[in-house]
Amino acid sequence: MAKNDPYAALRYREFNLFLLVRFAMVFAWSMQFVVIEWEVYSITKNPLSLGIIGLMEVIPAVSLALFAGHIVDQREKRSLLFKCIFGFSVVSVGLFLLTWPVVTQHITTSLTLYFIYALVFIGGIVRAFLGPTIFSLFALIVPKKIYPNAATWSSSVWQMGGVVGPAVGGFLIHLIGVHWSMCVIFGFSLMALGVLTQIKRKPIMNPKIGEPVLQSLKEGIQFVRNSKAVLGALSLDMIAVLFGGAVALLPIYAQDILKVGPQGFGILRAAPAVGALITMFTSAYFPLYKAAGMKLLAAVFGFGVCIIVFGLSTSFWLSVFALFMSGVTDGVSMIIRQTILQLKTPDSMRGRVASVNSMFVGSSNELGAFESGLTAKLMGTVTAVVFGGSMTLITVVATGILSPKFRKLDLRKDLEEHEKED
Questions:
Q1: Do the Cβ atoms of 152 and 286 come closer than 8 Å?
Q2: Which one of 194, 205, 239, 293 is least enclosed by Cβ atoms within 10 Å?
Q3: pTM attached to this predicted model
Q4: What are 184-204's pLDDT values in tens digits?
C-alpha cells in the first residue's frame, strides 16, 4: 500500500519539481530573513528592531490572509504561484540595492532602515498569498492516498531550505557581506521561477467561481471552527510558536551573550532546522498519523522545554544542542499538523483553510518575533526566552486537560477513506 512506501510521493515527476520550487523559495526566504536580521541589528543594536521586522511582515500577512485564501480558491494555482515568486524577487532586488554602499552613502541610516521595513512589509503581502497557493497546488499534484507521505517529504524539503538558508546566510555574511548575500537570494528566486514553468497548469476545484467574497470567507472560517481536529492543531501550534520565538533573538545571543560572531550565528540559526530535517526523514519510515493527538501534545511540550534550556544556557554547544532538539520536536509537530490539514480539508476550500493556517501558525512566527523583541526589551533577553518556553508548557498542559477529544485524535480512519476514494 502507498502509505507503507516511504518513497511513494517521489515517484511523481511533478511532485519532485514542486519540491525543487519549495526548497528554492524556503532557502531564499529564510536566508533573506537572517541577512536582514543581522543587518538591522548591526545598524541599531536594539532588540526591539528585530521585533519590528517580524511585525512589518505579520501585519499584511494577517490582514490579507482570508482575502488571499478566497483568491487562491478562485484562481489557477501554478500561475498564481508564479506571480508570488516574482513579487518576492522584486523585494529581493530592493533589499540588494538598500545594502549597496553606492546607494546607502546617499541616504541616512534611519531612511535606510525605514526602506528595509517597507520592503519587509511588501514581502508580507506576498507571504499572504504564497502559503495558501503552495498548499493548494500540493493537493493537485499527488493522489490523496499518499498525502501523509507527500506531506512528510514536502515538510522535509521545507526544513532543508531552513537548514541551508540560515547557515549559508551566516557564512556568506562573513565571506562576501550582506550586499552580495542578497544577490545569491535573488538568484534562487529566479531558479524557482524557471523550475515552476515545468509544472502544468491545474484545474480549479472550486465549484463556486465568482462567489461573493464575504460568503466565501464565512464558509472558510466556519469550516475551521467546526473541525475540532484542525482548530485544535492550529491553536496549539500558534501559541507554542508565538511564545517560543527565541530564534528571533539569536543575533543578540550570537553577538552579545555567546559571542560567537556570524559563523556561530549561522550554526545557531540552522540547528533547529537540522533537528527537524532528521525527524522528517525518519518519519518517512515511521509515519506519525497513529495517535496523532498525543504525539502532537508531547512534541510541543518538548519544544517548550528545549526553549527554556536554550534561554538559560551560556555554553555555545549546549545552546546548539537545545536548538537542535527544539527542531526535532517541532518537526514532529509540523508533520502531524500538515497531515491533519491535508486529510481534513476539502479540495474546494484549501486556499481558505491554508489562509487561516497562515494566520494561526505562519504569521505567529513573525508575531512571535515581535513578542520576543518586546519582552527582551522589557525583561531582558534571557528572561524573555524562559518566559516564552514556560508559556508553551502551560498551553500544552491546558490543551491536554480541556480537550480530551483532541488527545484521542487518530488519523488512520481518514487515511483509509481517502485510499478508497482514489
A1: no
A2: 194
A3: 0.70
A4: 999 999 999 999 999 988 877
